[in-house]
Design goal:
heterodimer; A: 203 residues; B: 323 residues; alpha/beta; 3 domains; 15-stranded mixed sheet; 15 strands; SKP1 (chain A); ubl conjugation pathway (chain A); Skp1-related protein (chain A)
Chain lengths: 203, 323
């Protein structure tokens, strides 16, 4: 680990659950109260292990910290309009699982601003809704439901494939049908001719 | 399983603190784990105003959220077996009321349950609480007030408490269970015909009553001025007051460093010659309404810079500390 110093140039190595390491600037990392309490003053040898969280999650968390370094006195958005384009992109890029992981990591790292921001995001999803609407927002599918959903999707895909195959076959048949009269004509003519020649030869 | 189950308690609490009471109560009904969590932590919802009006067959509950939304919920008795709940929200159209009928439910039970939940989420001081008993309903059937107030881990703090009652027993259901130190203004009026005097002798004996310190405004009552000497501002109406009581009030005022103003209204005129004998000769002047009044001035013992001014006309006495 690089020795701690006040310069924002200083980089720290972070270790994720996969054992991968990556760089984070000191200024970004100092937004984490957990880091401040554990490592800022005493320092650490080697990369800082935040091994409860995967690399993608940690990178996402520190991406936010890096971005917000220059907005020290920021108190969080009050309305939907307060969200900057960057903020909107930041949240929209995440799927539900990633969002949950980011909140948990932010809570563990004690990054007040990000935690509060994420909580506000969730609060906005719930605000003004009745119980039934809230259930739809917060319910996660169970493993069985996921499996069932996957099966349904597979079935749908299979059905779609069948339909496509059928369509292809029908198209082929149509093609043959279209050709049939001509072929039949040729064949009939050929048969007639053959019969004629045969009859000739018999005569 | 919900996505919220995957968060630690700190995060969940953070989310709940960002929602208003209506959202929290809706969320509470989404699943068992959230129901338990919300009942366990009871996030503070910081309501400013609650008004409760009880009628003989209905209860009306009004409250104002921190963002100034006003919610009104009415619980009506419906054919004696069910409870009709009507709900409006302002801003919004007050004429549009959401209605639901809860079968086999007692309107008082439903209202008390909702009130209990509301007060569980009130951990900070309530700016204004008004409880109005608009019927001669028996106090025992409204025993949910003491039950709810008593079940709190610490007494409810109210800055301005406004009570309209029909009988003393209703006051006894509220006053013993609030935090007296938090009350800066207490108003007590009798609901209904003006001529009837409210009995307050049991109330005046309460421990909480003796520790109330700030302002009181109380309508016709059968108490004595000695019951109000702990307040710094008093507005009170009595059927009768004796010169002996007035002398006692004057002496207490002169010795007190806390009493600031006592405004007394009486039905039976005070005996002026007797009062002149007790207070000594008076200065006469004209009050702001253009009427003659008698005035006395006394130097306070507690602080010689302060003067006690007493204004008198036969049905009204005004004791005021002047600096």
């Amino acid at each position: 680990m690089t020795s701690p110093a006040s310069s924002s140039e200083v980089k720290y190595l972070i270790e994720s659950s996969e054992g991968n390491t990556f760089d984070v600037s000191g200024a970004a990392l100092r937004q984490s109260n957990t880091f401040n309490a554990m490592f800022l003053n005493i320092g650490a040898d080697g990369p800082i292990p935040f091994t409860d969280y995967n690399e993608a999650t940690l990178k996402k968390v520190f991406e936010y910290c890096e971005h917000s370094v220059n907005e020290e006195n920021y108190s969080g958005p009050k309305h939907q309009d307060d969200l900057s384009k960057w903020d909107l992109n930041f949240f929209n890029e995440m799927d539900q699982k990633m969002f949950i992981d980011v909140i948990n990591a932010s809570n563990f790292l004690d990054i007040e601003r990000l935690t509060s921001y994420c909580c506000e995001r969730i609060a906005r999803m719930l605000r003004g809704k009745n119980t039934q609407e809230m259930i739809k927002v917060i319910t996660l599918p169970t493993a069985e439901e996921l499996e069932a959903k996957q099966k349904v999707e597979e079935k749908k895909a299979a059905a779609a494939k069948k339909v496509a195959e059928k369509a292809a076959e029908t198209a082929e048949k149509t093609e043959t049908l279209e050709e049939l009269p001509v072929q039949q004509l040729v064949q009939t003519t050929r048969n007639k001719l053959t019969r004629k020649y045969l009859s000739f030869s018999n005569e | 399983m919900t996505s919220l189950d995957q968060f630690p308690d700190v995060v969940l609490l953070n989310i709940l603190e960002k929602l208003d009471i209506l959202d929290v109560l809706s969320l509470r009904k989404t699943c068992r784990s959230l129901y338990n969590f919300i009942d366990d932590v009871c996030p503070n919802k910081n309501l400013q105003v609650i008004k409760i009006t009880t009628f003989s067959n209905a209860i009306k509950l009004e409250f104002v959220l921190p963002d100034s939304q006003r919610i009104t919920v009415e619980y009506d008795d419906f054919h004696g077996t069910s409870c009709l709940v009507r709900w409006t929200k302002i801003p919004g159209n007050p004429k549009i009321k959401k209605e639901t009928i809860l079968k086999n439910a007692d309107f008082m039970g439903v209202a008390s349950r909702d009130l209990e939940i509301l007060l569980k989420h009130q951990k900070t001081k309530l700016t204004y609480l008004k409880i109005s008993f608009q019927s001669e309903i028996d106090a025992e059937s409204l025993d949910f007030f003491p039950r709810i107030l008593e079940s709190r881990p610490r007494p409810l703090q109210i800055e301005n408490l406004d009570l309209e009652v029909t009988q003393q027993s209703q006051l006894l259901q509220i006053l013993p269970f609030i935090d007296p130190d938090a009350v800066s203004y207490l108003r007590i009026e009798r609901y209904g015909s003006r001529g009837v005097v409210l009995e307050i002798d049991d109330v005046a004996r309460l421990e909480n009553w003796k520790t109330l310190r700030n302002s009181i405004h109380i309508g016709w009552n059968n108490g004595n001025i000695r019951d109000f000497l702990n307040f710094s501002y008093v507005y009170v109406k009595f059927p009768i007051v004796t010169v002996e009581d007035l002398v006692f009030l004057k002496e207490t005022f002169l010795h007190s460093s806390r009493m600031n103003c006592v405004y007394l209204q009486v039905v039976t005129p005070v005996d002026l010659p007797e009062l002149l004998e007790a207070f000594g000769p008076s200065n006469d002047d004209i009050n702001y309404m253009g009427g003659y009044r008698k005035r006395w001035f006394f130097k306070c013992y507690s602080n010689p810079d302060d003067i006690l001014s007493i204004g008198f006309n036969p049905r009204c006495l005004h004791f005021q500390r002047e600096n």
